[in-house]
């Protein structure tokens, strides 16, 4: 777990460095008064640079009038609303007051707000599988989950190529599976919008990491069954040998009794012959 803790520290440092990179996007962070009073550093450090990149197009814009919620922005808002410290809810419920710039940006976010809030049921444990991009963004919105995800990326390169699932890769998967925000990743759906071969990665992970481990358990049961069958076979062979030995012993005893009977009859015959010879003299 030592290297994993180092990853968390490194990622937090990267996020803090990313604050100045995304300084233009200060919609909620510049508001330190009103119904919410969350520090700028806390709000920005709780989101990944990828998340802010996704929202920046919608909030800052490129001069065009946006009427529909882009998929990337929707995913970014869902992941922001999934954070445990309620940063996302503070983001969409902040009070702009008389800040005109803030009001304009909040109005843009409202294009996605109702649609995103209606789709928040996807975060429930019993909800159907979600897309892998959305599952990844939800994980990236959480510091520990993002650290576990990066740890997985760094130690599973051979798995991605379909070569093998190493011990370090399996360990990174175990760490990732313990993150609550990663519970949607294993059974997510590939929709073709990923920037990697999603289907191949999922297939390799299931085949080389999970099924091999499950197969080991099955082989243990199989070996136990095989051991039981071997014992039964040995018992049957032992019984057959005992039966053959008993039959041979029975035949030997029968033949021995016959030989003794024949010897007795031979002695009696000789005795009669001697008596007959004695009377004749």
Protein traits:
281 residues; mainly alpha; 11 helices; rod-shaped
Task: Tell me what the structure shows.
The protein has 11 helices and no strands. It is mostly helical and 281 residues long. The protein has a domain of 192 residues. Helix 8 packs antiparallel against helix 10. The N and C termini lie far apart (117 Å). It comes from Elysia chlorotica. InterPro entries: GAS1. This is GDNF/GAS1 domain-containing protein.
Question: What's a concise summary of this model?
Answer:
InterPro entries: GAS1. The chain has 11 helices and no strands.
| Beta-strand residue percentage | under 5%
Q: Termini, distance in Å?
A: 117 Å
Q: Give the helix proportion (percent range).
A: 55-70%
Q: What's the SSE pattern?
A: HHHHHHHHHHH
What are the low-pLDDT stretches, counting only 5+ consecutive residues below 50? Answer: 14-50, 213-220
Largest sheet: none
Could you say which structural class the secondary elements and strand pairing correspond to?
Answer: mainly alpha
Mean pLDDT: 72
């Amino acid at each position: 777990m030592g290297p994993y803790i180092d990853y968390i520290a490194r990622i937090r440092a990267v996020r803090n460095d990313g604050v100045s990179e995304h300084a233009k996007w200060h919609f909620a962070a510049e508001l330190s008064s009103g119904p919410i009073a969350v520090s700028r550093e806390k709000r920005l450090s709780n989101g990944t640079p990828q998340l802010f990149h996704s929202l920046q197009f919608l909030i800052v814009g490129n001069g065009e009038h946006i009427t529909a919620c882009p998929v990337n922005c929707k995913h970014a808002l869902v992941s922001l609303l999934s954070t445990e410290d309620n940063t996302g809810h503070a983001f969409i419920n902040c009070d702009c007051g008389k800040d005109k710039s803030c009001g304009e940006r909040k109005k843009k976010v409202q294009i996605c707000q109702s649609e995103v809030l209606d789709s928040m049921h996807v975060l429930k444990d019993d909800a159907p599988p979600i897309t892998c991009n959305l599952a990844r963004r939800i994980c990236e919105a959480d510091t520990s989950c993002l650290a576990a995800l990066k740890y997985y990326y760094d130690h599973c390169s051979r798995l991605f190529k379909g070569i093998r699932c190493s011990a370090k890769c399996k360990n990174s998967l175990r760490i990732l599976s313990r993150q609550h925000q990663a519970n949607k990743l294993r059974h997510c759906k590939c929709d073709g919008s990923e920037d990697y071969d999603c289907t191949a990665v999922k297939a390799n992970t299931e085949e080389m990491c999970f099924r091999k481990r499950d197969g080991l358990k099955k082989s243990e049961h199989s070996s136990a069954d095989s051991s039981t069958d071997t014992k039964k076979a040995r018992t049957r062979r032992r019984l057959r040998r005992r039966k053959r030995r008993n039959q041979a012993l029975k035949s030997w005893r029968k033949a021995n009794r016959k030989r003794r009977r024949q010897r007795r009859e031979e002695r009696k015959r000789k005795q009669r012959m001697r008596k007959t010879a004695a009377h004749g003299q």
